[in-house]
Amino acid sequence: MNEENTDPLQNNIRAATTIVNTVKSTLGPMGRDKMMVDAGGDTIITNDGATILRELDVGHPGAKMMVDISKTQESLCYDGTTSTVVFSGQLLKESENLFSKGLHPNLVAKGYNQAARMAIEHLNTLATDGGMTPHDIAKTAITGKSLESASEVVAELCVKAVETAGDADNVKVMSLSGGALQDSYFFNGYVVNKDSVLETHDGNPSIILMNNGLEPTKEKENVQMQFTDLQGYTAFKEGDKDDLLERAKRIAQLLPDGGMIFIRDGCTDEVVNYLHKQDIAVVRRLPESTMKGLASTLGISIAQNPDDIEDVAYGNVEKVKHDDINYFFVSSEDNKSDQSTLILRGASPSTLDEVARGFDDALGVVSMIMNGGQMVYGGGSTYVSMANYLRNNSASVEGRGQMAINAFADALEIIPATIAENAGHDPLDCLLSLRHAISEGRIEYGPDVENGGITSMQDLGVVEPLDLVKQAILSATEVTSAILKIDDIIAKRAE
After folding, report:
1. Is 82 a catalytic residue?
2. Which of 128, 204, 258, 394 is the most exposed place for a label (fewest CB within 10 A)?
3. Which of 82, 200, 341, 455 is catalytic?
């Protein structure tokens, strides 16, 4: 019988390794791009690990576990997904060497978890500001991405957006094709890429937000209604119209001087025309995310129907037409809002998609630092420092657990080694130089991707959030331990 197909652990390791090999070449400032093509011929060109893994069609359960940790890393830290997956893959590779020396998978998992705790304890001592600013953090986050050519502009926009909005979750990234990346700009408010039903004028209208209530109520499925004659049916429909008209009148009373209503659900043409005569513009069928963004921008609540309306906002609205699409730029009356929008410009939609992904990463990382997070030197320098610490302290652990801790240390060095390799330099020479530098206390040194060898990350302004590295260690260790403890793969009974 073929062992390749019968050993669940080896099967999972090979599946996980396949995922690692897919994204490994994208790591670092010199990482390569991937072209992803779906069945319809649509193409994505990206070196963003999270995007690549999200778009992969993965069926193997072991491989799915690797994809899941990348999602966790992205949701918590916005960046560092590729590092997490590559490190986890190297832990699995090192575990195979330990198996050959007689270590049980459970012992390896236990040793890895102990090593992770020791590594994070040391990581906490490496926190530094290094003279760096959130602007420097943003530039580091976009290094190696398509928007690197305009790093100064991008960094400035990211910092301004987070300063205004307070958190990356309150910043919307929107793409408008045409122009250059340097033409991108910041807007303190929310942009709605949907036109009003009827023409309206720019200005400072009164604004209402509502979820539903301006279209006929949908009857429940399988409900039958019987009418004895056409007159009865006509009366029923007219009653529905009258009810909607009364709701429209309620809105007109709340906006006696006209204004705008943004509504998540539909609105009948009759109601639209009635409100238009009252100088009230209707923007209908909006996503829930857009409604929440408008509510945050204007500082008002979203009513369920006309009878629930309590808040009327006074905002600034500018209608802009771009490529035959109308956009509403909505801001608060005082132009001070917790909601911000970054308007990205670029040559083509495909280019802009990658730019937007880079902006999202940079925004998240900047937000972590500006909201109290600590920094460490980047470029894989902290990984070498943690590895050095583990090797120096592994002897304090009794028994074969030492071997797992030393293997964990070896795995940590895969990050700077891969960065060097992807830049076209010898990874072994880089590691040996880094080990020597770290032993002399030069903890800020990392791979020199331009010239080969090593250089100061402080001089280059390369830093990253401490919490990002910490979460990468924790996530990778957790999924590796989980894979090591699986001794069988069983098909579940269909529900």
Report:
1. yes
2. 204
3. 82
Has 42 been annotated as catalytic? no
Domain ranges of the chain: 3-128+376-484, 147-182+342-373, 190-336
The CATH classification number of 147-182+342-373 equals 3.30.260.10
Q: 190-336, what's its fold?
A: GroEL (3.50.7)
For this structure, is 351 an active site residue? no
pLDDT digits (tens, 9 = 90+) for 420-465: 999 999 999 999 999 999 999 999 999 998 888 999 988 887 888 8
Q: Work out the number of other CB atoms within 10 angstroms of the CB of residue 260.
A: 24
Give yes or no for residue 230 having a pLDDT over 80: no
Cα angle, residue 188 at apex, residues 184 and 194 outer, rounded to 5°? 75
Is 418 among the residues known to form the active site? no
The predicted model scores a pTM of 0.74
Q: Which residue among 17, 48, 51, 341 is the active-site one?
A: 48
The dotted CATH code for 3-128+376-484 is 1.10.560.10
CA angle 211, 214, 218 (to 5 degrees): 90
Q: Which of 361, 382, 455, 477 is catalytic?
A: 361
Catalytic position from the list 22, 26, 46, 81: 81
| One-letter amino acid for residue 75 of the chain | S
